C-alpha cells in the first residue's frame, strides 16, 4: 500500500510537472510570438524611416536651387525689360545694365558667391589660372591683369580667375 501511495504520488507529481511544463511552453510560445511581432514592427518602422529619409534627400536635391533660382528671376526680368525698350539712348541702356548688375551682385551676396579679382596679389594656383607670364617691372609671381574674374561659393572655388602673372 505504501508502494501504491508512492506510485500515486509520483504519478501526481509527474502530471503536475507535465502541466507546469505545458503551461511554461505555452507561455514561452506566446512570448516568442510577441517578440516576433515586435521585431517585425521595428523592422517595418526602420524601413519607413529609411524611405522617408530617401524621399527627403530626393526633394532636397531636386529643390536645392529653388531659392537661388527665384532670386535670379528678378535679374532675368530686368534683362527682358531692357530688350523691350525701343527708343532709348545709350545712357539709359547703360543705367539699366548697371541696375541689373547690382541686382545680380545682390543675389551673389545672399548666396555667398564672392568675386575673385586678384590684381596685385601673389599668384595662388588654388584660386588663379595663369594664362601667360609677362616681363614686367613688378614683383615676380604677382598677378598683373585679370582676363576673367573668378568666383567662390562659401570659400570654395567655383571658377578660378584667368590671370597674367609677372615673371
The portion of residues forming beta strands comes to: 15-25%
Low-confidence stretches: none
Q: Structural class, from secondary structure content?
A: alpha+beta
Helix content: 55-70%
Gyration radius from CA atoms, angstroms: 39 Å
**What's the number of extended β-strand segments?**
6
Question: Overall mean pLDDT score?
Answer: 86
* C-alpha end-to-end distance: 123 Å
> Major β-sheet, in short?
3 strands, antiparallel
Number of helices: 3
* Strand arrangement across the biggest beta sheet: 1-4-5
Taken together, the total number of domains comes to: 3
Q: What string gives the helices and strands in order?
A: HHHEEEEEE
Coarse morphology: elongated
Structure, described:
The protein is an alpha+beta fold and 167 residues long. It folds into 3 domains: 64 residues; 47 residues; 56 residues, Head domain of nucleotide exchange factor GrpE (Nucleotide Exchange Factor Grpe, Chain A, domain 2). The strands form 2 sheets. The protein has a 3-stranded antiparallel beta sheet with strand order 1-4-5. Strands 2-6-3 form a 3-stranded mixed beta sheet, with no helix packed on it. A hairpin with a 2-residue loop joins strand 4 and strand 5. The relative contact order is 0.08.
Amino acid at each position: 500500500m505504501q508502494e501504491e501511495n508512492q506510485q500515486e504520488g509520483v504519478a501526481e507529481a509527474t502530471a503536475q510537472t507535465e502541466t507546469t511544463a505545458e503551461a511554461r511552453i505555452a507561455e514561452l510560445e506566446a512570448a516568442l510570438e510577441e517578440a516576433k511581432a515586435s521585431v517585425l514592427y521595428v523592422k517595418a518602422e526602420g524601413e519607413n524611416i529609411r524611405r522617408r529619409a530617401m524621399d527627403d534627400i530626393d526633394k532636397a536635391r531636386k529643390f536645392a536651387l529653388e531659392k537661388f533660382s527665384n532670386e535670379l528671376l528678378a535679374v532675368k526680368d530686368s534683362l527682358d525689360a531692357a530688350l523691350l525698350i525701343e527708343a532709348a539712348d545709350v545712357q539709359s541702356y547703360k543705367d539699366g545694365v548697371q541696375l541689373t548688375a547690382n541686382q545680380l551682385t545682390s543675389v551673389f551676396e545672399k548666396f555667398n558667391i564672392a568675386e575673385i579679382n586678384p590684381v596685385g596679389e601673389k599668384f595662388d594656383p588654388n584660386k588663379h589660372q595663369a594664362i601667360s607670364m609677362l616681363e614686367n617691372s613688378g614683383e615676380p609671381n604677382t598677378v598683373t591683369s585679370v582676363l576673367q574674374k573668378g568666383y567662390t561659393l562659401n570659400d570654395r572655388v567655383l571658377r578660378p580667375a584667368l590671370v597674367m602673372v609677372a615673371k
